[in-house]
């Protein structure tokens, strides 16, 4: 269940249970019925947000952050496998907002052009790699691209990362 936690001073309880629940969420994508392009309407995509309380996703512990990131990647991998077996014309990616992981999602793109707008033509934060920094296991052939989207009035840096299937020219 997604939930904003406004009481940041309270200790986060039940971390192992919450992480198990997150892993079960990622595993469910292996048997998920894919939404059709008609279900997406004119948007051209369908997305699933990270289903955790914000204080877990945005926790300062690198171990918890890595677990949340790996669960997103596992969900996307399972969804891509499901789409491939259904012979669907789509792309799957994790859209990660860094450092606020709570806003991250797994996205199924039916529109190639819309996916290209997230995917970009370059990796602006190279040679940095979220996968290397956090020891993440990416599926073979998947790409990782990062972009700095910090605005002048924001109090800290904001990065968008796309980890997903490559676009073929």
From TrEMBL:
<dbReference type="InterPro" id="IPR025075">
    <property type="entry name" value="DUF3916"/>
</dbReference>
<dbReference type="Pfam" id="PF13079">
    <property type="entry name" value="DUF3916"/>
</dbReference>
<protein>
    <submittedName>
        <fullName>DUF3916 domain-containing protein</fullName>
    </submittedName>
</protein>
